[in-house]
Design goal:
By secondary structure, the protein is of the alpha/beta class. It has a single domain, classed as TIM Barrel. The protein contains nine helices and 15 strands. An eight-stranded parallel barrel has the order 3-4-5-6-7-8-11-14, surrounded by six helices. Strands 1-2 form a two-stranded antiparallel sheet. The chain has a two-stranded antiparallel sheet with strand order 9-10. Helix 8 packs parallel to helix 9. The longest helix has 16 residues. The chain is globular, with a radius of gyration of 18 Å.
Length: 302
């Protein structure tokens, strides 16, 4: 049976709906690959894991600065952490938008983060040719939401032997993501994660359907909620995607309460100066407070 927990905080009452955790039980064996990711402090499903970092490698300094701070916070809070940054942004609204500092230069920055901090690193790829190149520098590969149906891209990522995080397309039903999972597994790679990042609602908005968490967990994969891209406001007349960062905490709290295995957050010391997706980023100084709250929610439902 599902149940409702009452939580009191500063004279406010939180009602947290807790789904039946046995609705779509995921065998621990399907999660076990997480424990084998180099540097990943994962010890089972008792605590959610965090995928976080800047949207893109802006220079050689900021990624390491962000990674060091998140690493300190997550070690203190005992939350498993994967650092995320794109080495290049191929999907931009405007031709004038920042794309990157150069592929190899950016990948070398990610390798430095990985080696100096001993933490796993994730980056996204955009074509089959990029898969083996990016795999040589990182621990996980990510398939962007707009490309989640591209068979050749999924197969190329799978064949690297790296875990593959597939972001659910804004146009995709949760149930349809099983075909993307089957493509990766069919190539001999059982290491698959799925990430919900919102569903198109009209032309300039996204909504999150939390029913997708147990539905996609039914494919025996860890399910992550992207709490920042889910709040984007696409297709703005300015050519720059907008966002609602003040709602990041809301999406994250609901995700943990609904049983998500992981939380995805793009963060930056100064989102207003970020070179990509600053409008929907969490300010880095606010991350620890949010994670403390999420950890309390997780402990209350397990």
């Amino acid at each position: 049976m599902s149940k409702i927990h009452h939580r009191y905080h500063k004279e406010r009452i939180w009602l947290i709906f807790v789904p039946d955790q046995n609705l779509y039980p995921m065998p621990e064996g399907e999660r076990s690959f997480l424990s084998s990711i180099p540097g990943f402090r994962y010890s089972g499903g008792e605590m959610f894991f965090l995928i976080a970092g800047p949207c893109v490698v802006e220079n050689e300094r900021i990624p390491l600065q962000i990674a060091e701070k998140i690493d300190r916070i997550t070690r203190e809070l005992e939350i498993p952490f994967i650092f995320k940054a794109s080495y290049r942004k191929a999907n931009r609204s405007s031709k004038d938008s920042f794309e990157g500092i150069g592929d190899i230069r950016a990948l070398e920055v990610l390798r430095r983060v990985k080696e100096e901090l001993d933490i796993p690193v994730l980056t996204d790829i955009h074509s089959p040719e990029e898969a083996s190149m990016a795999a040589g520098y990182t621990d996980l590969l990510q398939i962007p939401a707009f490309l989640c149906r591209q068979t050749d891209l999924l197969l190329a990522a799978a064949r690297t032997g790296k875990p593959v995080n597939i972001k659910k397309g804004q146009f995709m039903a949760p149930e349809a993501m099983r075909f993307a999972v089957e493509k990766v597994r069919g190539a001999g790679n059982p290491q698959v994660l799925l990430t919900e990042r919102g569903t198109t609602f009209g032309y300039e908005d996204l909504v999150v359907d939390f029913r997708g968490i147990p539905l996609m967990q039914g494919f025996d994969v860890p399910v992550v909620i992207d709490c920042t891209h889910s709040l984007q406001r696409p297709n703005q007349p300015s050519g720059v995607t907008g966002g609602r960062p003040e709602l990041i905490g809301l999406i994250a709290r609901a995700a943990v309460a609904a049983g998500a295995d992981g939380i995805f957050i793009e963060t930056h010391p100064d989102p207003s100066s970020a070179l990509s997706d600053g409008a929907n980023m969490l300010r880095l100084d606010h991350l620890k407070e949010l994670l403390i709250m999420l950890k309390k929610i997780k402990k209350s439902i397990t």
